[in-house]
Amino acid sequence: MGGVPRIRRWLARAPIPLLRAGLGPLLPAFVLVEHLGRRTGRRRYVVLEVVLREPGAVVVAAGYGPTSQWYRNLAADPRVRLWWRRAVGVRGRAELLGAAEGARVLERYRRLHPWRARLLARALGIADLDRPGTLEQIAGRVPLVRLRSPRL
Questions:
Q1: Measuring CA to CA, which residue among 77, 108, 109, 71 is closest to residue 93?
Q2: Is-contact 82 147, C-beta < 8 A?
Q3: Predicted local distance difference test score (pLDDT) of residue 132
Q4: Per-residue pLDDT tens for 18-56?
Q5: Chain centroid to CA 89: how far?
Q6: Could you list the residue range(s) of the whole structural domain that residue 74 is in?
Q7: 105: which residues sit within 8 A by CB, 6+ positions away?
Q8: How far apart are CA 22 and CA 4, in angstroms?
Q9: What is the pTM of this model?
Q10: Which of 28, 48, 124, 128 lies 20 to 30 angstroms, CA to CA, from 81?
């Protein structure tokens, strides 16, 4: 797997005020996640691309792997608030998916959105997303997180 290109912090954080203001319908591919810092207990915010929509949930990928701060924070405390589309600051829970479940989600994503899967693979530096039998390995390197809320 090649390295995932890092985006500038100011660019990654630019959508936060828009999403918090309720303008989620303008950015439907992104979800804003409020979580608590595992050491400080302070509120933290991250904007993530929605990989897949499920009833009452969205699935996102930890593109920089399981060492991402937001991912580690969710592992410590799964309580979140979410801003996505018309849902503004709704309470939810994060579910860190294991490699087997992540592979099932990636297979569904690949089947439903083949061209988006190719774009996602390129963005995440995953050359083998479209090859059979590799999804569990990919889900181990790029973990998936299901963000649940009955209000999504």
A1: 77
A2: yes
A3: 65
A4: 999 999 999 999 999 999 999 999 999 999 999 999 999
A5: 17
A6: 9-144
A7: 51, 52, 59, 97, 139, 144, 146
A8: 30
A9: 0.88
A10: 124
